[in-house]
């Protein structure tokens, strides 16, 4: 892609900037994180007004996103946040990308709020059965009402994902730069805590 680059002498394109490289990886991860929703085109993510869906689906989804402030003392920064995003099925999701200060580790989170627990269960089951989503890690810690932990490779980098359902919300946290289950555990626990607090309102 020529966007964001300039030609050097001799006609060779300049290497992409660090910010552009990060954006490209982020766009790639958006597609991977949406895999579960794409597998179930019949599902509709609505904006009902109860439980996790108080206010609107987008508002609820945004409230479940992680932020550097959630991890006091951690060297984390927010790279990009995507809220109130329409899906092709007419639903809404919210997404955020965090990174360690040295950029060696990236934490990507996507949230989808469904109109019913049954729809959220079906989405999680589809992700669990999809080979493209990664290899299920047996004996992994559990999160929310039900969950699955997946190990995969994105390009040349290992990643570990925790996908869990809390009431009508489906959350996925992917840590890239490691394949250790312990790396995703603290982020999934914080996301679970936020989801439970939201559910109790």
Description:
It is a single chain. This protein has a single domain (12-200), classed as Protein Transport Mog1p, Chain A (3-Layer(aba) Sandwich), CATH 3.40.1000. It contains 5 helices and 7 strands. It has helices spanning 18-33, 35-38, 57-63, 117-129, 181-200; strands at 76-86, 92-100, 106-113, 135-136, 146-154, 157-166, 169-176. Strands 1-2-3-7-6-5-4 form a 7-stranded antiparallel sheet, with helices on both faces. A hairpin with a 2-residue loop joins strand 5 (146-154) and strand 6 (157-166). The radius of gyration is 17 Å and the shape is globular.
Characteristics of this structure?
seven-stranded antiparallel beta sheet; disordered N terminus; 7 strands; 5 helices; globular; 28% strand; 201 residues; alpha+beta; 30% helix; Protein Transport Mog1p, Chain A
Summarize the structure.
The chain has helices at 18-33, 35-38, 57-63, 117-129, 181-200; strands at 76-86, 92-100, 106-113, 135-136, 146-154, 157-166, 169-176.
Total helical elements = 5
CATH architecture: 3-Layer(aba) Sandwich
Instruction: Give the total of domains.
Output: 1
Poorly predicted segments: 1-16, 20-51
Largest sheet: 7 strands, antiparallel
Instruction: Note the beta-strand portion.
Output: 25-35%
CATH class: Alpha Beta
Total E-strand runs: 7
Helicity level: 25-40%
Query: What is the averaged pLDDT score?
Result: 75
Q: Going across the biggest sheet, name each strand in turn.
A: 1-2-3-7-6-5-4
């Amino acid at each position: 892609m020529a966007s964001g680059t300039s030609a050097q002498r001799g006609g060779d394109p300049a290497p992409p900037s660090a910010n552009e490289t990060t954006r490209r990886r982020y766009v790639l991860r958006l597609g991977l994180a949406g895999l579960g929703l794409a597998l179930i085109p019949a599902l509709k993510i609505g904006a009902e007004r109860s439980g996790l869906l108080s206010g609107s689906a987008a508002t609820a989804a945004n409230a479940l996103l992680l932020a550097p402030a959630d991890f006091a003392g951690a060297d984390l920064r927010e790279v990009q946040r995507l809220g109130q995003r329409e899906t092709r099925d007419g639903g809404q999701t919210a997404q955020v990308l965090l990174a360690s200060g040295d950029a060696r580790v990236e934490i990507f989170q996507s949230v989808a709020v469904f109109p019913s627990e049954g729809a959220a269960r079906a989405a999680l089951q589809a992700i669990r059965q999809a080979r493209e989503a990664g290899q299920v890690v047996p004996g992994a810690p559990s999160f929310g009402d039900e969950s699955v932990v997946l190990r995969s490779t994105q390009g040349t980098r290992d990643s570990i994902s925790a996908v869990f359902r809390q009431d009508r919300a489906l959350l996925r946290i992917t840590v890239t730069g490691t394949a250790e289950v312990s790396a995703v555990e603290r982020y999934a626990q914080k996301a679970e805590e936020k989801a439970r607090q939201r559910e109790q309102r």
